[in-house]
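Record format v2
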Amino acid sequence: MLGLTIEQIAYLFRGAGWTIVLSLLGFVGGTLLGLPVALGRASKSRLLRFASGVLVQLVQGIPLPVIMFVVYFGISIAGFDVPALVAAGVAMTLYSGAYLGEIWKGCILAVPRTQWEAGECLALTKTQRFIFVILPQALRIAVPPTVGFLVQIVKNTSYSVVINFFDLTYSAKVINNATYKPFTVFTIAALIYFAICFPMSLLASRFDRRLHRS
Amino acid sequence: MTSPAAPLVRFKNVEKNFGALQVLKGITLDVAPGQVVALIGRSGSGKSTALRCVNGLEMINGGELEVCGRKLHAGKVDLLELRKDVGIVFQSYNLFPHLTVEENITLAPRKVRRIGKAEARDIAAEVLEEVGLSEKAQAYPEQLSGGQQQRVAIARSLAMRPKLILFDEVTSALDPELTGEVLKVIERLAREGMTMMLVTHEMAFARSVANTVVFMHQGRVWETGPGAMLANPVTDELRQFVGSGL
Amino acid sequence: MGYAFDFSFLDEYWPDLLNGVWLTLGMTVASVLPGFVLGTLCAVGRLYGPPYVQRAVTFYVEAIRNTPLIIQVFWLFFGLAVLGAKIGPFPAAVIALVVNVGAYTAEIMRAGFRSIPKGQIEAAHCLALTPTQALWSVQLPQAVERVYPALVSQFVLMMLATAIMSQISAEELTGVAYMIQSFTFRGFEVYLVIAVIYLAMASLLRLTLMGVAHVSFPRLRRLGTPL
């Protein structure tokens, strides 16, 4: 098929499977890190704002492949011998956490000030106000950009090829080296990426339109 | 071609539809050179649409419309050529925010009429003088009051040396105290013999400045006459309209 | 942990790092303007072009935005090699970057054009400007002004993305780092150092592009309107 053997195509799909695994790791890790980052960035405390801001600035100013290398070598000099998946997962967590934190900060701040005041009038505590009044509204605003960022996560897992993590990009590279059919191999890889990303892009813009209509 | 006495604008049974809605139901109206024609009427009467047909912002669906010797009903019209002769000033000024007052004024003369930079600046100085804003040439629109912005918009139109200027409710967005300065500029242009068509809500102004007042109602020219007609309406509709204080 | 940090590789390898910096900056500078022009043309084509142009632009933008840059780079670099077109890593990297950033710029500029009030375009046409003149003198400057911060972020991201070009053996900064760590076995320190260099370059690029805005938009300079 297309000059590739079934085994070679299956190999590409095995790589795609690991791309999805790493994307999920990145999203789950990024959510766990992104929530405190968002709260810190939107916080009244100057120290929290500064600390979370430094993380965001660092991640947004350093290329993801370099972050992958730093994590990879950092873990190994700490004396652990871990698979590339762990290093890539940690790097994706840092990356997604910083960007998601920044996106969600915007969503929290987009909830009108008067909503806090309304919560105050109902004699809710600060935490209650956040959980019951602000958060549900911020979540609604957060859905379209978060789905949109999922696309970024999936695409950027491809950078893990620099630390030789076996994903779709890595497997495509291997098959290309074996077959020397770059157009076929990388077109298939691109189509698989597209098949994962494009539906999410469509979903994100549909959510976005729905949000703006209401 | 138009002889000096021939009208600059000639509506003959002009019709205009927006989908199923007929907005102009056969309008006939002439505007001679040097004339000032005020279009009045309730919102939805078709007066703004009639005005926008004159420079081709809306194309007519029936009848005949001739502007500055060009037949707008006869197939393809060169709108660029038409608009060199016909200026328009909008309710919302529509000055270009990224350009200074002077650049706003010189843009079209330089790009369209291919006038040199120095000459274009002379023209800008001249038309700014005309609207009393010589000192604002280097200001940006956002630094000006609404009235000043509208005067710049008039100057921008004048700089193209049009044969005719259209005014589409140019004072409607302005506070009463800023309305006066804009009306004064239009009055001055009228004295100097500029041909103008204006859609306006300022009855006192229409009465004092316009040679002809056209009262439009339900897509038709309902009553036409000199400014004095507003004091003695013939039709009930105009009487009600004048009486309602609009 | 008893790890002893050792940055002594800097003594020997700083000229290599500097070369890497130049190559990274070179790729970036070479890609910014063509990428902006391509993106703007695509935005105009998608907004005002005939239907087949609109469809073609949509296809290009979606294809690029939904696949990783590195796959695009491999496709182009290895593909051209197989076709027998001898093209070096640097031109291949620049072409890939332009094509990639062009798609993102197209979306940003499209949003910019769409945010201009209709009255502005109507006014331009009523002054007898042709559609092209109106686009060039009235719509384009206002669109760029409105989306400039987003454009700056996009081009900073593009600079950071050059870090993968060592995959096609372009010796940019990350490629140099890889070479140094393979000689010195000081991977952690080497990548820490280049992380700092990238941070500095990102700030530098941001400042430079803001400076460009300062020169290009006299109104913002005069009135101090923040971008």
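Chain C touches chain A at residues 1, 3, 62-63, 65-72, 74-75, 78-79, 81-82, 156, 160-164, 166-167, 174, 177, 181, 187-188, 191-192, 194-195, 198-199, 202-203 (CB under 8 Å).
The two ends of chain C are 47 Å apart (CA to CA).
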